[in-house]
Amino acid sequence: MLFLGFSHRICLMILLFVPTFFNGVESLHRILLDTDVDTDDFFALFYILKLNRSEIDLKAITIGTNGWTDSGHAVNQVYDMLYMMGRDDIAVGMGGEGGILPNGTILPDVGGYLPIIDQGYATAGYCRYRQAVPVGLGGRLDIDSNYGFRKSFLPQGKRQYSPLRQPTAQQVMIKTISSGPTVVFLLGSHTNFALFLLSNPHLKKNIEHIYIMGGGIRSQNPTGCCPKNSTSSCQPRQCGDHGNLFTDYTSNPYAEFNLFMDPFAAYQVIHSGIPVTLVPLDATNTIPITKEFFETFEKNQHTYEAQYCFKSLKISRDTWFDDQFYTSYFMWDSFMSGIAASIMRKQHNYQGENEFAEMEYINITVVTSNMPYGISDGSNPFFDGRTTPKFNLERNGVHSGHVQTRLRDPVCVVKNGMGKCQDGYTKEVVGPSGVPVRVAVRAKPNQNPKSALDREFFVSFLDVLNQRENSGLFNFSTQFPHYRGELHKPDFRGKHLGKNVVFDMDMSAGDFIALIYLLKLPVEEINLKAIIVSPTGWANAATIDSVYDLLHMMGRDDIPVGLGDVFAMNQSDPVFSAVGDCKYNKVIPQGSGGFLDSDTLYGLSRSLPRSPRRYTAENSVKFGAPRDTDHPELRQPLALEVWESVVKSLDPGSKDILVIGGHINHGNTDKGNVFNVPSNKFAELNMFLDPLAAKTVLSSELNITLIPLGIQRKFSAFPKILKRLQLTKKTPEVIFVKRLLSTLHHLQKTHPRYKHMDIFVGEILGAVILASDYSVLKSTFDVKKIKVSATGYESVDGQIIIDEKQGKSMKVLKNVDHLGYYNVFANRLSDEKQSAVVGSFNRQTRL
Ligand SMILES: *[C@@H]1O[C@H](CO)[C@@H](O)[C@H](O)[C@H]1NC(C)=O
Ligand SMILES: *[C@@H]1O[C@H](CO)[C@@H](O)[C@H](O)[C@H]1NC(C)=O
Ligand SMILES: *[C@@H]1O[C@H](CO)[C@@H](O)[C@H](O)[C@H]1NC(C)=O
Ligand SMILES: *[C@@H]1O[C@H](CO)[C@@H](O)[C@H](O)[C@H]1NC(C)=O
Ligand SMILES: *[C@@H]1O[C@H](CO)[C@@H](O)[C@H](O)[C@H]1NC(C)=O
Ligand SMILES: *[C@@H]1O[C@H](CO)[C@@H](O)[C@H](O)[C@H]1NC(C)=O
Ligand SMILES: *[C@@H]1O[C@H](CO)[C@@H](O)[C@H](O)[C@H]1NC(C)=O
C-alpha cells in the first residue's frame, strides 16, 4: 500500500511537471545530420552550427560514405571544421565493418559504403550507382581536398580518424536517437539512415521528423537548354529533365544524385511512416547562385566560416566546366537547412510554413527498379537466384524489376532519346503506393524587392554565416601563427648525383615506406628525380597530399610529383571521361584495411608536417582549363608532364624498370592476392588493378626486373623488421616507419579485416634492391620470358604467363639474404645523413 501511494505521488509529480517541461524547452530540437561532406553540405553544416543553440542543437554528424567524398578525407575534414567552430562536443560517426548476410540479416555497424542492394559481408564492392560521381577534377578529388583549401585553411585539432577507434555511423545514430527525440537531416545518400531504421525499428518513435535534400518531383532542370536563337547544332542536354545526373542522363534523366546513390535506402526512409519534409530540385532549381549573390558574399566575409565557404564557392565557379555557373549551381543543402530551421522555430507547424520556401503536400514514392516487375534479368540481387527474396521483398512488387546496373546500362539507353531508367526518381503517384510528403516547391523572393539578393534565403544565409555568435575560433594560420610555409630543398652543389630514378606509387602503406627508404639512399648513388602517383590502386587521388607532406618532412620539396590518371586503362567512360568503371579497383575494401586507411595512412598522415605544396584545383588556360583561376601557377602537374620533363632532362642511355608485383605461380599451388575475386586465383594486385597498363609496360622495349609476390612474401614478417628497427638509432624517419609498421602489425593481430597487412611489408623490397649492394644482399635473379594477361576477363586478368615464344625476357628476383636485407633497411633509415628536416606536425607547429 505504501508503495502504491508512493508511486501515485510520482505519477502526479510527473503529470504536474510535463507542461512546464514542455514550456521550458519546447523549442529545443536535437539534430542528427548525415552528410557526404560535399561543398554545399558544409555550407549547411556551418549555417546550422551558427543558429541559436537553445533552439537548434546539433548533437551528432554521421558521414555518408556512399557519395561524393571518400571516407578518410571526409571524416578528417569534418573533425577540422568542428574544431574550427569550437564544437568538439559533437559526436562524429563514420563507417563500420558490419555487413549484410545473404539471408538479409543486417549485422551491427554496417558501414554504409555500398548501396543496400549490393551490401554483402565486406566493404569492397562494385560501384553500380556511385560511378555516376566523377572521380578526379570536379569530382571526388576536388571534394576530398576541398579544392586544396581543406589543408591550407582549416585548423587541425586533436580529433581525427584512427583505425578501429573511430565511432561508427550506426553507433552514433543509435546513441543519439535513443537519448531523446531527434530531428534527422539527410544531405547525402540515405544508406546509413535506412540501415539504422531497418535494424532499430523500436527507435523510430524517437525520430520527430526527417528533412531531406534530394529528389526531383515536378522539377524541370533548367540547365543544358539551347538558347532560343541557337543554331540546329545545339543539342539540349538536361534541359527539362526531372533529375540532375549530368554524367548519366542518357540512361536516367529522372534521378537526383543523393537519392540515386541508394534508391532502395531512400525508399525505406520515405516510406518509414516518419514525417518527412523534402527539399527537392523543384525548390533548389529556383535558387541558383546569382552573380549578385556571389558578389555580395565576396564583400561579406566576416568570419572564418564565411571565408571558407566563399573560397570554396569561388573556386567551384572558377573551375566550372562551362560558362553556365550562375544558372546551374544552386543552393542545395544549405537551402534545406534554412527551410528546416525556419519551420522548426514555429510550433505546431504542420503545413511547414517558413520564411524561405513555399510548401505543398505531395504523395510520392521512390522508384527502386524499373517496370515490368517480377522479371529476373540478372540485374537485381534482391531476387536473382534466390528462393526467398532478400528482406522478404514481394516477388512482383516495386523492387522486383530491372535495377540499373551501371553507367549507360544498355537497358536504360534509348536510341536518340532520353534514357528510360527511373532508379532513384521521387515520383508523384496516386493511390496506396505513395506517401504524403511535405515538399518545398519554390524559393520565396526577397521581401525587400530593392535588394540585390533576389531570394529571402540569400539574406539569411549571409547574415547567419557572418554573425558573431557561435563563430569560428581560428583558421590554420591564426592557430599556428609561427608556421612558415617555406619549401625545404637540399643543396646539391658540388655533388655528383647517382642513378636517376622515377618512383611510381599507388600510395599504399608499403609505398610510403619505400619512398622514405629511397629518400635515405645517398644522392650520389640514387637520385630520385620525380614521383608519379597512380590513384588507381590502394588510395584515392587526394592522398597525394601525404606524398607532399612526406617530401616536406624529408626536406625534398624539390622533387616534382605528378598525378596520374584516376582510371585504369580503358576504364574511363568514352562519352564523359570524368566518370568511369571500377572493374578492377572494386577489389580494394572501402573501409578498414582499404581506402579509408590508405587515405589517412592508418591515422598517421596527420602527424606528418604540413607541406606548403599540396593538391589544388587551381588551373590554367595554358593547360586546357576553361579559364585561369587566381593562382594558375600552383596547378597540380600531371604524371605525363612530369615524366616528359624528366625524360627531357636526361641523357639518352639505358632505361631500366623495376616492377614490384606480379605473381609467378609454380604448379598452381601458390595463389595470388586478389582476395576479393575468387575466380581469379593467380593474379597479383598491382597487375590486376590495371592489367592493360601492366601489359604495356611489361611488353615494352625497356629492361625490366620483376620483384614478384613469391619473394615479397618471404620478407613480409612484421616481427623481424620491427625488432631490427627497435635496435637502431631513432631518426624521425625510423620513428615514423616504426609507428606505421607497428600499427599495421597490431591491426593484423586485432581484426580479421586487417589480415592482409603483410602485403605492404613485401612492397619495401623493391626499394632496397634498387641500390642493392651485392656483397650484403646477395640477391640472385632468374631470367624468364613473361607476358601479362589483359583480356578484359576478370578471372584471368593480371595473371603472369611464362611464354617461351611470345614472352618478354626479364630478370626476376629469386632470392635475397634475409639478415642482410633487414640490416640494410634499418641501417639506412637510422643514418643521420639525409635525415628529416622537420620531424613531425607537432615539431613543425612548435617551431
Ligand atoms: C535563443 O533562444 C532562446 C529560446 O528561444 C531565447 O531565450 C534566447 O534569447 C535566444 N538567444 C538569442 C541570442 O537570440
Ligand atoms: C541468417 O544467417 C545467420 C548466419 O548464418 C543466422 O545466424 C541467422 O539466424 C539467419 N537469420 C535468419 C532470419 O534466417
Ligand atoms: C586566416 O585568417 C586570417 C585572419 O582573418 C587571414 O588573414 C588569413 O588569410 C586566413 N588564412 C587563410 C589560409 O586563408
Ligand atoms: C543569341 O542571342 C544572344 C543575346 O540575345 C546573343 O548574345 C548571342 O550571340 C545570340 N547567339 C546566336 C547564335 O545568334
Ligand atoms: C495521399 O496519401 C494519403 C495517405 O495515404 C491518402 O489519404 C490520399 O488519398 C492520397 N492522395 C492521393 C491524391 O493519392
Ligand atoms: C583499350 O583502349 C584502346 C584505346 O582506346 C583500344 O585500342 C584497345 O583495343 C582497348 N583494349 C581493350 C582490351 O579493351
Ligand atoms: C638494356 O640493357 C642493355 C645492357 O645493359 C643495354 O645495352 C640496352 O641499351 C638497354 N635497353 C634499354 C632500352 O635501355
The coarse overall form would be globular
Q: On the 0-100 scale, what is the average pLDDT?
A: 93
Low-confidence stretches: 1-27
Count the helices. How many? 30
In helices, the fraction of residues equals 25-40%
Distinct compounds present: 2-acetamido-2-deoxy-beta-D-glucopyranose
List the helices and strands and how they pair.
Elements: H1 2-25, E1 29-35, H2 39-49, E2 56-63, H3 71-84, E3 91-94, H4 140-144, H5 149-153, H6 169-178, E4 182-186, H7 191-199, E5 207-213, H8 257-260, H9 263-270, E6 276-279, H10 281-284, H11 291-299, H12 304-318, H13 325-328, H14 333-344, E7 357-366, E8 426-428, E9 435-443, H15 456-466, H16 476-479, E10 499-505, H17 509-520, E11 526-533, H18 544-553, E12 561-563, H19 595-599, H20 639-649, E13 656-660, H21 685-688, H22 691-698, E14 703-707, H23 709-714, H24 718-726, H25 732-750, H26 758-762, H27 765-770, H28 774-777, E15 780-788, E16 800-802, E17 808-815, H29 818-830, H30 841-846
Parallel strand pairs: 1-2, 1-4, 2-3, 4-5, 5-6, 6-9, 10-11, 11-12, 13-14, 14-17
Antiparallel strand pairs: 7-8, 7-9, 15-16, 15-17
Helix pairs in contact: 2-12, 2-14, 6-7, 7-9, 24-25, 24-29
One 2-acetamido-2-deoxy-beta-D-glucopyranose binds at residues 227, 229-231.
Signal peptide: 1-27
GO molecular function: hydrolase activity, hydrolyzing N-glycosyl compounds
Protein name: Inosine/uridine-preferring nucleoside hydrolase domain-containing protein
